[in-house]
Design goal:
The protein contains 2 helices and 9 strands. The protein is of the alpha+beta class and about 110 residues long. The chain has one domain: Alpha-Beta Plaits, CATH 3.30.70.120. A 4-stranded antiparallel β-sheet has the order 4-8-1-9. The model has no long low-confidence stretch (mean pLDDT about 85).
Length: about 110
């Protein structure tokens, strides 16, 4: 798959406890990205954060291990593909934040061995 030099980065900020049909929402989003043929997706688990639903700081500490840490799903592809993808997943994100920004793609390649 080839990507143009100017791509876009879709970032989806959700909570670890967010679900889609009893499975983690972040997992469903990544599976949908693969199914839609997007270039790739990565999930990052935040160590600390808060959001629109709660002003309580969720944190990863041994004495108080949160079960709803922030999760960030990042997907890079063309603007058109990401906007189409966002239309698909938008109705399933009950709370969160989504950003779309330009990204300069230096290379996108697979190991050929």
């Amino acid at each position: 798959m080839q990507l143009p030099e100017e791509g876009y980065l879709l970032r989806i900020f959700i909570g670890e406890a967010d679900k889609h049909e009893h499975k983690p929402l972040y997992e469903w989003i990544v599976l949908q990205a693969r199914e839609q043929g997007l270039a790739g997706a990565t999930v990052l688990r935040g160590m600390m954060g808060f959001g629109a639903n709660t002003r309580v700081i969720q944190t990863f500490k041994i004495e108080r291990l949160s079960e709803d840490l922030p999760m960030v799903v990042e997907v890079v592809d063309t603007k058109e593909k990401l906007e189409t993808f966002l239309e698909l997943i938008d109705p399933h994100i009950k709370a969160g934040l989504v950003t779309l920004e330009k990204a300069q793609i230096k290379f996108y390649r697979a190991d050929k061995t």
